[in-house]
Amino acid sequence: MLRAWGIAVLLCVLGCRDVGLARLHRDAGVDGGVGADAGVPDAGPPDAGTFDGGWIGTWEPLGPPLGSDAQVYPALAFDPRGRLLVAYVDLASSPGATPTELHVVRWSGSTWEPLGGTVARSDTRFPYSAPLWLRLASERDGRPVLAFGDSGPDGGLGSFPVQTWAFDGSAWQPIPAPGSGPFLNGMALACGPDGQLRLVLSGGDALGVWTLGPAGWTPAVAPLLDDGGVSEPDLALAGDGSPVVVFSEAPAPGSFGPLRAWRWDGAGWIDLGLPSPDAWGMLFHTPRVRLRSDGGVVVAASQWRYDPETKMQLGVAEPVFALGEGGWTALPEDGPPGGSGLSEPIAGAPIGLQLANDVPVLVSTGADGGAELRALPDEGSRTAPPLPGVTAGTLALAADGAPYVGGVTPLVISADPSETDGGQVQVLRFVGQPVVAPPRSPDPALHEPMRP
After folding, report:
1. What CATH number is given to the structural domain containing 165?
2. What pTM, to 2 d.p., does this model score?
3. Given this model, what pLDDT does residue 158 score?
4. 127, 268, 301, 361: most buried by Cβ count inside 10 Å?
5. Angle at alpha carbon of residue 238, lines to 236 and 244, rounded to 5°
6. For residue 195, what are the contacts with CB-CB under 8 A and spacing of at least 6?
7. Distance (Å, rounded) from C-alpha 313 to C-alpha 321?
8. In degrees, to the nearest 5, what angle opens at C-alpha 161 toward C-alphas 156 and 163?
9. pLDDT class of 379 with cuts at 50, 70, 90
10. In 293-394, which ranges are continuous DSSP H helix?
11. Residue of 72, 82, 205 whose CA lies nearest to 147
12. Neighbours of 204 (CB within 10 A)
């Protein structure tokens, strides 16, 4: 089968360069709602005061920007001591060379500290339209684990076959990664209540879940098979470590297909019956799933529709669904997503989802091209002050409930990848009073404040 990242991706590829899945889109809305002020650290955050949504405080940059030309949104994770870890992929341009490099840094409380130098590097990454997947998590003992790969885990197309590493305190040690078939449709990485990491890889019509132990990755449960395809999966883990997954039922990122959610019940995979919109030309990107303390399921995604006249993807909605004892309910929406319609583009469409005391908190890029964060308590959507100078990306919540967003500064459009400027990773944290309470955790140690 011809691998083409979906019909919509093929139609957009001349106007973009991949950043995992897409690199750049001319309809990214950079000129719309993201101003020239990129949130330079020495300029200080804007004075947001008291916001109508109930968030009291401001966003401030956490240190200087990272890298020079981000290739995918960063991955964020907190270690058990509350220190923030950030993984990012950078196009490190120099005369005559544009190597793609993978880095991880840790916030010391005052600066970014590199962890182990360059983790991976490719001098010739081809094709630029191939997806990049980046995931980061910390084990209960504090050991960071990193997963990274692009389109060809078995060497079919990509320069970065699926790889995983663990940081031993001085260097990143490779851990042989399981295969996902001839192509990689997505990955997820999460730490369970038992302190063990699970890795999800999808390729074609199959999804596998592995557990990291002393001997490396071993199968955790039987594979999930879906004839419609498994694309861009996300993972949440129940109290007993059993996985809950959500994905786009599509043969490749950027292809048409509805959302699907499944749970492992100890004997097999159970379809949770997610009431996803399903119509011709409809597609979903960056599905996200989290579990409430009562066992309920929350799912969010970025919803797009292919327009056959303009041959473009148009943002439709950012649906959020919650599954409880009474079945699925749809939570309030705040309008269509912005940027481009490809998976995790620097310019646009990803959804970041976390739960703060069971209340969904989301970050996304709005239709005006600016990043926004909102909480969805029972009384309705509560929007935080606008995030300055970035498109949305990854969301993490500290133990005190403060949101941290890993975004990317706007790009300068260029047909030549070596001349593209901007696109630096910028981490922002909300300083003040969040509208929702801190997240619950069965482990008091996870509520220790962030310290060096």
Report:
1. 2.130.10.10
2. 0.83
3. 58
4. 301
5. 45
6. 139, 140, 141
7. 23
8. 160
9. confident
10. none
11. 72
12. 21
Q: Please provide the distance, in angstroms rounded to a whole number, between the alpha carbons at the two ends of the chain.
A: 51
Euclidean distance between CA atoms 373 and 154, whole angstroms: 38
Question: 127-131, 202-206, 268-272, 324-328: which has the minimum mean pLDDT?
Answer: 127-131
In a domain, 264, yes or no: yes
Strands 259-264 and 269-271: antiparallel
Q: 124-157, pLDDT tens digit by residue?
A: 665 555 678 899 999 988 999 999 988 654 444 5
Please provide residue 353's backbone torsions phi and psi, each rounded to the nearest 5 degrees.
-130, 130
Q: How many domains does the chain contain in total?
A: 1
Compute the distance between CA of residue 202 and CA of residue 136 in angstroms, rounded to an integer.
Answer: 17
In the predicted model, is pLDDT for residue 56 greater than 60? Answer: yes
Task: Specify if 1 maps to a domain.
Answer: no
Tell me the DSSP string of 116-157.
SS--EEESS---TTS-EEEEEEE-TTS-EEEEEEES-TTSSS
C-alpha–C-alpha distance, residues 33 and 20, integer Å: 23
Do the domain assignments include residue 370?
yes
| Averaged pLDDT, 178-190 | 84
The range of the structural domain enclosing residue 386 comes to 7-447
Instruction: Quickly count: other Cβ atoms within 10 Å of residue 358's Cβ.
Output: 18
- Is the separation of the CB atoms in 151 and 158 below 8 Å? yes
Helical (H) or strand (E) element with 33: helix 30-33
Of 358, 342, 449, whose CA–CA distance to 402 is shortest? 449
Distance CA 163, CA 178 (A): 9
pLDDT at residue 29 tops 60: no
Q: Give the β-pairing of 327-330 and 352-356.
A: unpaired
Instruction: Count the residues in the chain.
Output: 452
Given pLDDT bands bounded at 50, 70 and 90, which one contains residue 48?
A: very low
Kind and range of the H or E run holding 7: helix 7-12
Domain annotation covers residue 357: yes
Tell me the one-letter amino acid at 352: G
Contact between 331 and 360 (Cβ < 8 Å): yes
- CA angle 41-45-50, nearest 5°? 165
